[in-house]
Amino acid sequence: MNIAHPRLGTQTKFVISEGKLLGTLRTQLYSVATRSIVPLVIHQAYLGNYMPLVGLVAQSESGQGIYLGLLFNIACNEDFPRISAEDFAQDANNNFGGGDSHFGFKMVCPIWPQYRPDEAFYQPVTANIPTLILSGNLDPVTPPSNGEYSAKSLPNNHHIVIENAAHTVAMSTCASDIINEFLTTLEPKSLDESCLEEVPRESFMTNLNGGDIHIDVSKQGGKEQ
């Protein structure tokens, strides 16, 4: 199809693969701000207006702050060798792209320069030091269960799960204030968390003019407000 180029305005042919579509949408889930527009983008595409989707694709071409060389260097050497065929199959058993996110690693890792950590590298850290763990309940890649796993071997820890927060939890003013207090006092279990009650509820854009709908996910099944 022909669309107006999102930056130049000139007519250009727009072709998108299934993998690029899913990857673009998945990237938006990392931020509460961008995940709020995903339903609208999908609905507009259904109506035949692909410009919102084109804008997201153009934005994602910048890399979204991901350093791919660093990502592959760590994942291909520390994680990929320990993932079994059964693990890949289990992860691909989903209704959001199946195993499409495995493709890049399966293509790159076999030819990436290798180093291999010894087994001690993979053992849990058991240091009895003040530890603050922050998780976002909407994080699509490092969910609160990751924080719970780390907390098991860190006796002087405090794990805070922030509602209506995604991957970049520490970017919010509330989280940064909590981090600042922790670094000042080194007392993770006695932090002032009152600002967590003021974190805005998740909302979604409902039209191209920016109207939104608030979702209360604390109640079973959700509630529109």
Give a structural overview:
By secondary structure, this protein is an alpha+beta fold. It has 3 domains: 2-64, no CATH class; 68-118, no CATH class; 124-198, Rossmann fold (3-Layer(aba) Sandwich). It has helices at 18-28, 32-35, 38-46, 51-60, 68-79, 85-91, 103-108, 144-151, 173-185; strands at residues 2-4, 11-13, 131-136, 157-162, 203-205, 212-216, 223-224. The strands form 3 sheets. It has a 3-stranded antiparallel sheet, with helices on one face. The longest helix has 13 residues, at 173-185. The radius of gyration is 21 Å and the shape is globular. It starts with a strand and ends with a strand. Mean pLDDT is 87; it is low at 217-225.
Biggest sheet: strand arrangement: 5-6-7
The low-pLDDT segments are: 217-225
- Shape from CA axes? globular
CATH-defined fold name of the largest domain: Rossmann fold
Major sheet size, sense and barrel closure:
3 strands, antiparallel
CATH top level of the largest domain is Alpha Beta
Q: What is the domain total for the residues?
A: 3
The secondary-structure element order is EEHHHHHHHEHEHEEE
Question: Alpha-carbon distance between the termini?
Answer: 38 Å
- CATH architecture term of the largest domain: 3-Layer(aba) Sandwich
